[in-house]
Specification:
Layout lengths: L12 E3 L7 H5 L5 E5 L4 H5 L1 H11 L3 E5 L8 H13 L4 E6 L1 H13 L6 H5 L12 E5 L11 E6 L4 E6 L7 E4 L9 H20 L5 H23 L4 H17 L6 H13 L3 H16 L4 H10 L9 H18 L16 H11 L13 H10 L2
Amino acid sequence: MDDLYELTLPRDTVFGEGSLECLGRRASKLGRSALLVIGRGSVRRSGALDKAMKLLKGSGIRVTLYEGVEPDPSIQTVDEGSKVCRRESCDLVIGLGGGSVMDAAKMMAILAKNPGSAREYQMGERAIEQPGLPYIAIPTTSGTGSEGNRVSVLTNKEERIKKSVAHPYMVPHLAIVDPSLTLSLPPKLTAMTGIDALSHAIESYVSRRAQPFTEGIGLRAIKLIGEDLPRAVEKGDDISARGSLAMASYLAGIALNAGAGAAHMLAHPLGALFGIAHGEAIALVLCEVMRRNLDYATEKFADIAMALGENTSGLSARSAAELAVDAVSRLCQRIGLTRRLRDFHLKEEDFSEILKGVEKSTSHLKETNPCPITEELLLEILKASM
């Protein structure tokens, strides 16, 4: 049925400046022994880790720290963390960090109650059958929206792919979205995570599985990012701009119920094969993907143009839609995401390997991208992004 929708929504969210203060009180309702998962040091330097530890211990919660989750977290890291979780008899998992940390932590919570390796679930060899441990997501970036969705994107080094695991059991039991935790984010990382959030909002809005709910929150996210991403990049201590981006990231993450599209089809293998940061990979291909989708979601791209502040008065729907691409291109220029594939030393001979990566990891997104996806189309996008 064309009108049959499926939504997986966040269970509980606390949003706003200073909301981290509720961590101890809220966590104590979910468990008494927490595995606290962090990355490679930024939450130490910002003071967020010390604050979180103090709040948890002040509420009588025993904390086991799992540190060192890398960008684009690996199967090995997730498997190791789940073993620590079981060994220490943790009954709660908390991810404090960016999208990589949150994705790793939510999969660790699942593996604490389900057998096997994360690889088996990623490759479809096992199905998630049991709810994981209660999981709290605390984002320190505004990009992936992992705090509001059921997806974990993991790197499989053996297969050289980035591929998602998705299940309703993976939605966080609690998301604490405190914009003040993003104030120390450097301009480049602010730009890359912001463009990732924008791509979630745009691709979900024009998705063939879009629905009224995802359309509404996706379009709102687009507007917030267009207005406040440049401000956050240029003035990182602007808490109002940081709050807008935190909300936009959260909304766009939920909008991914409708699925992503060709920009993500290509960005994942670009990251897995060539080590290109996800937000940068998105920026490399997003405008070219949008151009090829214009004729398949013309009125929606006109909506996107208006949400990004373009004056579409008196224009045809097609002309207005083209302004959406122009607006995203200018936004990328303004925030410093201007590199091309050639700047990462890619050559056209690498394209066949990228296409193989698409087939192994993101081919399911063919179902949601507006334009029919062929190898020829993907090659055309890659060539135009050189």
